[in-house]
């Protein structure tokens, strides 16, 4: 009795060694990985369009989808994952979802240091964003180490009168005053509402 082509294929597969089977699986994984990266490229193109349209709610949905794709395709120590997290955090900040944005930026703080080193504008930008989000949530004392770290980088990279340097110095001064005032009011048991002083 003649065997069917399907039976022959199964028998042939069973004869293969483990390395041969692994090689076949690698080929399938490579095809899947290429497909995932293509999907990621398409999604990123959609995100760029949403940014150009300034449709932040649409951008939020697309960015979250892109983050999920990055988690599937890349490790959480990769620049691709970092970029997806940064984009999502930035959109949450634009939508004034300060708590969500702050959590995202804090979650990639160490990764940013690891990827770019201590003397890079990306590190300063993340620190500055964390500081500003602490400021917007009235946590003035917590802003200070992040503003100070950002300032050290700005001072290394830019002139004394550069806008980044002068604004960050002003933010440190303002938040130092607000933190001292909060400590004083806490001691005295006074509750007050602070005014916007950061730029």
Question: How many strands appear in the DSSP assignment?
Answer: 0
Portion of residues in helices? Answer: over 70%
Q: Summarize the main sheet.
A: none
What amount of the residues lies in strands?
under 5%
Structural class: mainly alpha
State the distance separating the first and last CA atoms: 84 Å
H/E topology pattern = HHHHHHHHH
Radius of gyration: 25 Å
Contiguous low-pLDDT stretches (5 residues minimum) are: 16-23, 25-32
User: Given the structure, what is the number of helices?
Assistant: 9
Q: Please, how many domains?
A: 2
Shape descriptor reads globular
Mean pLDDT equals: 83
Structure description:
- The protein has 199 residues and is mostly helical.
- The chain folds into two domains: 36-116; 118-199.
- Helix content is 80%, strand content 0%.
- Helix 2 (18-53) packs antiparallel against helix 3 and helix 5 (98-107) runs antiparallel to helix 7.
- The longest helix is centred in the N-terminal third of the chain and has 36 residues, at 18-53.
- Mean pLDDT is 83; it is low at 16-23 and 25-32.
Features of this protein?
about 200 residues; mainly alpha; 2 domains
Describe how the helices and strands are arranged.
Blueprint: H1 5-15, H2 18-53, H3 56-73, H4 79-94, H5 98-107, H6 109-116, H7 121-136, H8 140-157, H9 163-188
Helix pairs in contact: 2-3, 3-4, 4-5, 5-7, 6-7, 7-8, 8-9
